Amino acid sequence: MTYVYLFRHGIAIDRELCPHDRDRELTAEGRKKTRTIGEKLYQLGLRASLILTSPLVRAHQTAQILADCLQEPPLEVVEWLAPEGDFAAWEAWHDSHRGVEAVFLVGHEPDLSSWAEVMTWGQVSGNILLKKAGLIGLVTYPDQPLRGTCTLFLLLPPKILLGL
Amino acid sequence: MTYVYLFRHGIAIDRELCPHDRDRELTAEGRKKTRTIGEKLYQLGLRASLILTSPLVRAHQTAQILADCLQEPPLEVVEWLAPEGDFAAWEAWHDSHRGVEAVFLVGHEPDLSSWAEVMTWGQVSGNILLKKAGLIGLVTYPDQPLRGTCTLFLLLPPKILLGL
To answer: Which residue in chain A has the smallest CA separation from B156?
Structure first.
């Protein structure tokens, strides 16, 4: 089985301040909160065999901070984690990486919470709330499809880790 | 809208040590961990307008510890939170208490995670993992039914709060 952590990018600068959505950077607050959360996750014993990230700057920066906090696992940019992401590509990746212990996917909403719903229930209701720098934890099983078979064990708003 | 927290009772003594399942008490470890979690929830700003609990001893003890930690909100024992609980009774309770800000339901598995699924997706897959002294957070909306309309915003395994 594989632990899959869906992590939404941290707080980024406003759209008005950056005409190209792909280039929006994390704010100072976004960087700081993301780092605190990464450090707490490490302290809690979470580890990543590797981190996959959306190519957008705010996601890539988030993934780099997480990699920093989690002892530098390999970090790979995948186009299918960009907004309006490609779930079939994620399924294909998962199928060809069955031995991975724990993988982080750093990306965007509403994709990540929708993917969690598809993995757990096989369909999307839009009723999971995933905040910026929030985290969803799922377990996937060998020889099972990704749709409707995974176990949801964690939905962590950032304020939980920031408040302790 | 109402914040609904589904809280599973803490660690109880083995079935072999207590012939009557309803009378099983929390272990010393179960009491200690439940109290730590209750204190952290209070520290994080969680509040309860009232706490409803299953009548089984391990749930009632859990609810009393939570009440202690959350500044003694009213605590009410309801039979419909006993194992093989009555979701329709919870719906009826919710319908007649629409103004409540935040309610804790202390009970058992698999009822609580199934109820969370019904509230969020309208059906049960059995794919949410709720550990002992774990917590699920949902938002319910005025003038909406409880089935398939609520927002899931929190699924908190006990080790997160115990580890920080």
So the answer is: A154
